[in-house]
Design brief:
The chain is of the alpha/beta class. The protein has 21 helices and eleven strands. The structure holds 6-O-phosphono-beta-D-fructofuranose (F6P).
Length: 527
């Protein structure tokens, strides 16, 4: 199956981009086509998607769908779902979809549901244990970001008597303030690590165990649990309660596995099963919906269109729900660790860009920080708005203001404001001395800046599951088009190895063989 740039559709897209695509004007496109909104919106499980404010028209979409066909995206997708070793550089299957398949369906169903049942039963026991008031998840990357994002998102569904804490950084400023507020007899630690070798997690787990024992704790079996594929290492650490998973679950795709234990402790069995069901509904959509109505597939195609034809290097995510405050951080790992690659599966250097920089903050906070740049900066940055129709709080007035802001931002990005209109506006008195035309240029907005809006009816476990799975499959799609391995992460290894070399040097001061900069900094940072 060819790489995207070796297809006929790629050439057609290039021609289309030069002829029409580059200059497509959203305002004109809407004026020209009364059916644009209907044509570019779609319903996927739990998510209504408005793609109409993107820089595409019917022809763009047709060429992009040709591209997906020629690159065999659907066949590649089917291979992943079937458990083929699509993670070629590690010789592994990629089966996070099996983690949310109903009992009896999908590969490894007995194993998956065996661990799931055991983990959820354990979660229910802990939830009923009033002595445990605080749960500390110690893990990093994929063993942290999923639960850390989901728990606040589902705050309305969380057990009121359990406080969840997340410690990830090897910086002691992460764990110290958490431990300061806790008591061993009321605390449960979860050591979450796929490999059970990650330096940060092992170091923090050691600190937690020492704190527990010196603080009078004795029953490690009751107060420590592990979630890992390396059950032997967890046992060697002294942990008796362990929930396993498998090498075919990538770290950044693992919140559906035992790594989701903090989520299950927070929201309980029924809600956790709903989270899985929402993700499974999106899996079915991705696996079966026709390409033209397949939301993750369309999003992946758009990513290629923006990155490789328009040359946009970044995408901003703006969730208009405070509970989703960690979604941008979660997506940074999901997208940038997956698709931040510069060689294709055959090791050939790619002549085009891959993962955009993904970043963002919840609205409306982002509006008062960097939205200035989104509206008037020199780069075009597609924005992804996430609106949630029904809140779980009683403040209808706040919700109305929030949604009005969400709508206004995508409207402003698209419509902009001409210098002529700005010129007609009343100028602030302080600027009275400035030439009116100069001031109007400062106050004008170019507009025609693209955005997507997703609407969820409510932020339920089911809807959140579908939303996360949508992003997973979108990353799969762009990765398949680029013909890269979205499931390895060799890029994090070099720094790990160098840190191991530098750690003893910090103590000894030995700078032999180091470059002058690193040697100078080492000398400066010695204890
Ligand atoms: O940062 C690299 C990485 O391997 C991530 O992919 C992973 O999620 C994280 O480290 C944590 O790894 P582990 O779960 O093995 O501790």
């Amino acid at each position: 199956m060819p790489r995207c740039d070796r297809t006929k559709a790629w050439g057609a897209l290039k021609g289309h981009f030069e002829a029409h695509g580059r200059d497509l004007d959203l305002r004109e496109a809407f004026a020209r086509d009364a059916g644009r909104w209907a044509a570019f919106t779609l319903e996927a499980p739990e998510i209504f998607a408005d793609l109409s404010k993107n820089l595409v028209d019917g022809a763009t979409l047709r060429f992009l769908l040709d591209l997906a066909r020629e690159c065999g995206v659907e066949a590649r997708r089917d291979a992943m779902f079937a458990g083929e070793a699509v993670n070629l550089t590690e010789g592994r299957a990629v089966l996070h979809t099996a983690l949310r398949a109903p009992r009896g369906q999908g590969p490894f169903s007995d194993e998956v549901h065996g661990v799931l049942d055991a983990m959820l039963a354990y979660a229910e026991r802990v939830r009923a244990d009033d002595a445990i008031t605080d749960i500390v998840n110690i893990g990093i990357g994929g063993s942290d970001l999923g639960p850390q994002m989901v728990v606040p998102a589902l705050d309305a569904f969380c057990h009121p008597g359990k406080r969840l804490h997340f410690v990830s950084n090897v910086d002691g400023h992460d764990i110290a303030p958490v431990l300061r507020r806790l008591e061993p007899k009321h605390t449960l630690f979860i050591v979450a690590s796929k490999t059970f070798t990650t330096q940060e997690t092992m170091a923090n787990a050691g600190v937690a165990r020492d704190w527990f024992l010196t603080g009078g704790g004795s029953d490690i079996a009751r107060h420590f649990a592990a979630t890992t594929t390396n059950v032997a290492a967890a046992a060697a650490f002294g942990i008796r309660t362990t929930f396993g998973f498998w090498d075919w679950v990538g770290g950044r795709y693992s919140l559906w596995s035992a790594i989701g234990l903090p989520i299950a402790l927070a929201i309980g069995e029924a809600n956790f099963r709903d989270l899985l069901a929402g993700a499974h509904a999106m899996d079915r959509h991705f696996a079966t919906a026709p390409a033209a109505k397949n939301l993750p597939l369309l999003l992946g195609l758009l990513d290629v269109w923006y990155r490789n034809f328009h040359g946009f290097t970044s995408r901003s995510v703006a969730p208009y729900h405070q509970g989703l405050k960690r979604l941008p951080a979660y997506l940074q790992q999901l997208e940038m660790e997956s698709n931040g690659k510069r060689v294709d599966v055959n090791g050939e250097l790619l002549p085009f860009g891959t993962s955009p920089v993904v970043w963002g903050e919840p609205g409306t906070n982002g509006q008062h920080a960097y939205f200035q740049m989104l509206h008037q900066g020199s780069d075009v940055i597609p924005v992804e708005f996430i609106a949630v129709h029904r809140p779980t709080h009683p403040y209808a007035d706040l919700q109305a203001k929030l949604l009005a802001n969400c709508l206004a931002q995508s409207q402003a990005l698209m419509l902009g404001k001409t210098a002529e209109v700005a010129r007609g506006e009343k100028a602030p008195t302080a600027s009275a001395t400035l030439d009116r035309d100069v001031l109007a240029r400062h106050r004008s907005f170019p507009g025609n800046r693209p955005s997507t809006t997703f609407v969820l009816e409510a932020l339920t476990p089911r809807a959140l599951g579908a939303l996360i799975a949508m992003y997973e499959h979108r990353v799969f799609t762009s990765g398949a088009l680029w013909d890269i391995n979205s499931f390895d992460q060799w890029g994090v290894e070099l720094g790990k190895a160098l840190a191991s070399d530098l750690l003893p040097r910090l103590a000894s001061g030995d700078s032999a063989g180091l470059d002058a900069s690193t040697a100078g900094l080492l000398a400066r940072l010695r204890p």
